[in-house]
Specification:
This protein is 47% helix and 17% strand. The chain has helices at residues 8-13, 29-35, 49-64, 101-104, 144-161, 188-200, 218-232, 256-264, 281-285, 293-300, 304-343, 345-367, 369-387, 390-433, 435-440, and strands at 18-19, 22-23, 66-77, 84-89, 94-99, 116-126, 131-141, 179-183, 206-210, 237-242, 269-273, 288-289, 445-448, 465-469, 474-478. Helix 6 (188-200) packs parallel to helix 10 and helix 7 runs parallel beside helix 8.
């Protein structure tokens, strides 16, 4: 269709007429139409190259936003301005990238051609040359950097679901009946945990759930151990631990399945993974996080010495309270006795008798005053000397000293007997509840050649060497045959941690 053949519906929408030379007013419209052969031209939006590139850059930046990009660095250029210009490529394509100096100064890794990186940036267009590019804002190595990114994404997602909320965390028992440990049976972590538990509170038994803590099957074994411990419910608290390592070594504890299993476990879980600076997803989901495996062991059991000190302090407070109460009752009894003595009828009779004696004495003294004045004076002086004599006071003090010495000796003997009784009772209790008492009654501890306690005949085989620990000494034995326990002979599992 020619310009002159524009339909009426299009012509009615035209508000201005434009000719080849530009917009004209009404006065020159007729001449314009004549010059163009009577053709009407609609207005055209003509882009400049600068405007085109500017609009394209705006559309790209708004359409894509910030994104992550992984590839290999090539054609790296570092001009004097400090900015970086390079390409990121894969097997099929490449894209130009730039990273300004204010951002590349924060990069901690060596960037060179051939490096595998993960970058975060925004799609843009370099307007001066119309080149499609990505403006990089963050750069990290691929591999561990990818693991770190997945770690942060999983952390944000689980936090949004509420798995890290404090109200979901279960309190730890003050004194657990049994401690469960989920870790590798051959690593240094289990040795550190057992050493700390024996040092802080030896009577608490320990149940180890052996799992792999690194590798392809580690996450599945950890999840199975958590579910098994939850079903059995024979431990009051669980320790999930392993030694330190890189982010890849700790990846099993950053798996979503492990995090959800820890969150769903009905038993409180204490994580002790890696070193103090290592953080995993499990640390955020666990009921309590310890910086190391040894720290986790310290969190789950109390300090024996501290408990003994608290018991001693409680005993001292109780003794002081009893003594104080006895003193208060003695004071009250003395007060009541004095009050009764003052109000008793006999007291008034004694006062009248004393008054009668006084009057009689005065009467006799008045009658015999003249005759006995000198004798009375001498008698008074003699009585005064006798009352003031040091010999009398010394005899009285010796009597009091003898009484006090006998009382002190008797009290010392009573305290010694009571202390000896408490010591003997505590010794009998310790002897009855200690592991040596169990061995003395004829029990034995059977261990494999690796030092692991043997609880099931299915865990060994004929020809295996065993170490049998008795009350006195130990035996080296060799398995000649095994008889697994049949289901009809199975006995319910005992709740205590004593060996059977």
């Amino acid at each position: 269709m020619l310009d002159g053949d524009v339909p009426d519906r299009r012509r009615s929408a035209v508000t201005r007429l434009v000719c080849v030379g530009g917009t004209r007013d009404d006065a020159s419209m007729s001449s314009t139409i004549a010059e163009t052969g009577g053709k009407l031209l609609p207005e055209r939006d003509i882009f400049t190259v600068s405007r085109l590139n500017r609009e394209a850059r705006s559309l790209l930046e708004r359409g894509f936003g910030s994104l992550w990009l992984e590839g290999e660095v090539s054609n790296l250029s570092r001009p004097a301005s400090g900015h970086w210009y390079f390409s990121l490529k894969d097997d099929a394509a490449q894209v130009r990238c730039c990273m300004f100096r204010s951002r590349n100064q924060l990069v901690q890794l060596p960037v060179q051609d051939g490096a595998k990186v993960v970058a975060r940036g925004r799609v843009s267009l370099y307007e001066a040359r119309g080149e499609f590019q990505v403006v990089i804002e963050h750069l990290e190595e691929a591999g561990e950097g990818l693991l770190r990114r997945r770690f942060e994404e999983l952390k944000r997602r689980l936090a949004a679901e509420g798995l890290f909320d404090p109200e979901h965390r279960k309190p730890l028992p003050a004194l657990p009946r049994r401690v469960g440990v989920i870790t590798s049976p051959t690593g240094a972590a289990i040795r550190d945990i057992l050493h700390v538990l024996r040092r802080r509170f030896p009577p608490v038994p320990v149940l180890v759930y052996p799992v792999a803590v690194q590798g392809m099957f580690a996450a599945g074994e950890i999840v199975d151990a958590l579910r098994l411990a939850g079903r059995r419910a024979d431990c009051d608290v669980l320790i999930l631990a392993r030694g330190g390592g890189s982010l890849e070594d700790l990846q099993s504890f950053n798996e979503e399945t492990v995090a959800r299993a820890v969150h769903a476990c009905p038993i409180p879980v204490v994580s002790g993974i890696g070193h103090e600076t290592d953080f995993t997803i499990v640390d955020f989901v666990a009921d309590e996080r310890a910086p190391t495996p040894s720290g986790a062991a310290e969190r789950v059991v109390p300090d024996r010495a501290e408990w003994l000190r608290s018991f001693s302090a409680a005993e001292r407070r109780s003794t002081y309270a009893v003594r104080r109460r006895l003193q208060e009752l003695d004071t009250l009894l003395r007060f009541r006795a004095r009050s009764l003595a003052r109000t008793h009828p006999g007291a008034r009779l004694r006062q009248h008798a004393q008054r009668l004696d006084e009057l009689d004495t005065r009467l006799v003294r008045a009658v015999r005053a003249t005759l006995a004045r000198t004798t009375t004076r001498v008698s008074q002086v003699s009585a005064l000397l006798q009352r003031s004599s040091p010999a009398l006071r010394l005899r009285a003090l010796r009597v009091r000293l003898a009484v006090a010495q006998r009382a002190l000796a008797a009290a010392g003997r009573r305290n010694l007997v009571a202390a000896r009784g408490r010591l003997e009772s505590a010794t009998r209790t310790l002897h009855a509840t200690g592991p040596r008492a169990t061995l003395e009654r004829g029990y034995a501890i059977v261990m494999t050649g690796t030092g692991r306690v043997l609880r099931d005949a299915a865990e060994t085989a004929p020809g295996a060497s065993l170490d049998v620990r008795l009350w006195r000494g130990s035996l080296a034995a060799t398995v000649t045959s095994t008889t697994p326990e049949t289901p009809d002979r199975a006995q319910p599992r005992r709740k205590s941690g004593k060996p059977g």
